Amino acid sequence: MKFVESVLKKSEHPAYSWIVFILTVCESIFLFVPPEVFMTPPIIANRRRAIPITIAAALGSLVGGTIAYLIGYMLFDSIGVWLVQNFATMEKFQIAQSMFVKHGLMIIVLAAFTPVPYKLMAICAGFMGFPALLFIGISGIFRTARFATVAALLWRFQDAANTIVKKYFWWITVAAIICAGFGIVLMMLL
């Protein structure tokens, strides 16, 4: 599979950390592709990349989460409404608001560590005026823990992961898209 080999080879380039950073920033604001999709190729291509890639994903998530928070806090009537209307509904956002009032801290933990769309919770946190430093701190801890867990598993099982990715690349890609879709559906059901 030449495409997979090409992706793995290109992912070893030092600039790929920046790609992970930028894509994770985008994922934290508007993109619905889980960051693990960007993290996997460089780590299974070269296990020494696990720490730099985890750091890039964690920092990208913090920057993107902060931007999403600020959109909710300062620009909700323009950009925030557009993002909510394009990625959910205002009714679902209002449900998220009521959940935030009851379970604010737990909602951030849930969104940071699971496939629940983090971006919507970040916008909601800003809109609700959730303490910014607490939001950034909790997001940083749990998003980094999520990425570090994935990186550690890929590092530990690099050979098996490499074989699996080469053999089931397209199935894994479809599964990642389904997981993102599941996160969206779960968010809509909340």
Mind sketching the topology for me?
Blueprint: H1 2-10, H2 16-29, H3 35-45, H4 50-74, H5 76-87, H6 90-113, H7 118-128, H8 132-156, H9 158-189
Description:
- The chain is mainly α and 190 residues long.
- Helices cover 86% and strands 0% of the residues.
- It is built from 9 helices and no strands.
- Helix 1 (2-10) crosses helix 3.
- The protein is elongated.
- The N and C termini lie far apart (41 Å).
- The model has no long low-confidence stretch (mean pLDDT 80).
Question: Which of globular, elongated, flat, extended, rod-shaped describes the shape?
Answer: elongated
- Detail the poorly predicted runs: none
- First-last Cα distance: 41 Å
SSE series: HHHHHHHHH
Query: Beta-sheet strand percentage?
Result: under 5%
For the sheet with most strands, the description reads: none
Count of DSSP-assigned helices: 9
- Number of E-state strands: 0
Radius of gyration: 17 Å
Q: Kindly state the percentage of residues in helix.
A: over 70%
Q: Could you say which structural class the secondary elements and strand pairing correspond to?
A: mainly alpha
Summarize the structure.
The protein has 190 residues and is mostly helical. The mean pLDDT is 80.
Kindly list the characteristics that best describe this protein.
mainly alpha; 86% helix
